[in-house]
Amino acid sequence: MNENDHRDHILHISKVPAKVTPAIETEARKIATRIAKAFGYVGVFAVEMFVVRSGPKGGKTQTLLVNEIAPRVHNSGHWTIDGATVSQFEQHIRAVAGWPLAKPVRLGKRVEMVNLIGPEANDAGHWLTVPGASLHLYGKGDARPGRKMGHVTRVWPK
Questions:
Q1: Is the preceding peptide bond at 17 cis, omega within 30 degrees of 0?
Q2: CB 64 within 8 A of CB 48
Q3: Whether pTM exceeds 0.85
Q4: Measuring CA to CA, how many Å separate 11 from each of 77, 86, 109, 115, 117?
Q5: How far apart are CA 19 and CA 4, in angstroms?
Q6: Number of H helices, E strands in the chain
Q7: Domains parsed from the chain with CATH numbers
Q8: Which tens digits make up the pLDDT trace of 88-137?
């Protein structure tokens, strides 16, 4: 389960594991499973949810609100390329081809995926000196504001 931070309505950082309670994680899995079963879905898909606090002054009661269903591999799962035993892309192909699924295991105690948006990609070389970081540039042309130009995955050892 990822915890995502957005900047200007664009995914900026995806963190794994998410800092949520076990009860919220269990409920999120139940919701995603119900959605997949309702559609008879095969493959990798993303369900974006918000944790909503309710009660006095943003109280302690937490519920989940589904915001988006993406029936495909998703940018928030790019961390699996470097941070898991199987990437979302390979797992998706395995599922739709009817091949055995691999067991996805996170490779570090923590993994973060940072999107390089617009001109941030122009200064991406500094990531090559960061321990545990892997740089992925997409080879797109102009680094326009709001355009995803690449991402960095950072894995913290266990």
A1: yes
A2: no
A3: yes
A4: 11, 22, 22, 7, 9
A5: 10
A6: 3, 7
A7: 3-156 (3.30.470.20)
A8: 999 999 999 999 999 999 999 999 999 999 999 999 999 999 999 999 99
